[in-house]
Each structure stands twice: as structure tokens, then as C-alpha cells.
Amino acid sequence: MSKAQRATVDAMLRRGSQGFRPLPVERMRGDFAALMALFPVPEVRTTESVLGERPAVLVEPEGAARPGTILYFHGGSFSLGSPRTAMGLTAGLVTRTGFRALSLDYRLAPEHPFPAAIEDCLDAYRALLDDGAAPESVAFAGDSAGGGLAVTTTLAVRKAGLPVPGAIVAFSPGLDHTRTGASMDTKAGVDPFFTREGMAHTGDWYLGGQDPHQELLAPAVLADLTGFPPLLLQVGTNELLLDDSVRLAERARDAEVDVILDVTAGVPHVFQSFVGQLDEAGHALDRAALFLTQHLSA
Questions:
Q1: Is 269 a catalytic residue?
Q2: What class has domain 3-295?
Q3: Annotated catalytic, 48?
Q4: pTM, two decimal places
């Protein structure tokens, strides 16, 4: 346990925080890209690709890849980010597992509100299957909004009559646009990244005026997870989104789904990015890699 490291990261994030300001989306995208460029990226090979009808980045280990594919969905409140902003996490999983990853550049709100991102992720998975990938050899993984997409895309896969992937890994996933989790209030001020007001701002972009009381918008509250593959949820206690993962894990348990709820104390949203600054970041990625290698079949 690295209490000193956690305190240092928390203080750093609070110094950089200027509170919520309703900035133009292009400014927010630039600021987010600059922030994520600060995180380390392990040595991997990257190739621009296309999956479905969307751009993607193929990420491969420097040596020979083992059979299996991680379909990665980046974070960014459904409005920011790209495969490049999530490259540290994607490459971290690739180097630890030996699997290749395809990181999808799905459409973003507000230009493309719900359900555009889910449709893109579903089309990407369908393209993998059409290309000969066995469903049990594919894992969905993602952080923040992308962690939410790993879950909601699986719901869409099931509804479309396709076989579900072999596993799901979600880092600090956003799973409830009704914002009814107790941690939205109990962690207010504790979370160095998010405020309820800020999350409502980008959340409204994604909703596009639609009712959030839908399975694909609030799976932590409304989803039936029957038939889901093994699921790993990783979250920190210093997060407004903590109870999104807690409640989804309960729903998975009730649906007889293999689920691991991995909670780390005193760490911020998507703490897995802080490799080299938080010992817990590398440890969490190690656990996620073990989970993937245990559950993906060639």
C-alpha cells in the first residue's frame, strides 16, 4: 500500500483542477489529449486500421502475439478522447498479456449522441467475427466511458443475437446516466477529477435529450446481465462513479455471472493510468492481464 504515492497523486490532481467550467467541446478535447499524453506508454507496435466503418489502431506486442484480441474502448465522457489518449492502458494490457488489441475510434457526442458509440462498437465486434475471430477469443476492455461501452456493447451484442465475447474488463466504468449512485454524493469533494455538475454537462451531450432510464444508458440500475461472460470491474474509492461498479457487480451476481469487483482504496478515477506514480496502477493492470489470459480461449 503506497499511502504517500496516493497522497502525492491526489495533491497533484487537485493543483491542476480549476473546477467545472462549461468550455467548448473542442477546447475540452484538446485539454484531454494534452493530459493523457503525459502518461507513459510501453513499447508496442501500432498500425492505423479500420474496424467496421470506423478508424482503429492495431496495437501489438514487439514480439509474436499470442492468439486472442482485446477490443479496447477509450474513455473521455463519451465526448473526448481517441485510441491515442488511451494508448498507455491499451499497450499496458498488450505487453502484459501478449494479445493484440484493436482500439476503436468510435463517434463522439455532442455531434453523435447515444446510441452512436454503441452502434460503432457493435459494428466493430461484428467485423471481428466476420473476419473469423472466435467470440471466446475476444475480450471487451475500456476505461471510464469506454468501460461503460464494454458493458453496453455486450448488451447490444446479445440483443443482436450474436455470441457474447469471452470476457469484459472495465476500468472505472460509467454505468449510470441517471446518476443515482450513493457515491455521487458521498464522494463529492473526495473525487479530484469529477463533480456532479461537470458530469451532467457532458452527460447531456451524450444523452441528446433522451431519457436516461434505459438499459443501455443505466446498466448499473436497469440491465439484465443474464448470459454475460466473466466480468472484471476495477474502481477506486475516491470516485463519484464508485457505486456504478458496485451496483453492476451486484446485478452480475444476481444473474449468476462470474464477476470480480476489484476496489482499491484512496485512488482516483482510472488510476491504472498512473504507472510509475502509483504502485497500485501496475498491480491493477497485472490483475487485469491475469484475468484476460485466464478467460480468453484461442
A1: yes
A2: alpha beta
A3: no
A4: 0.96
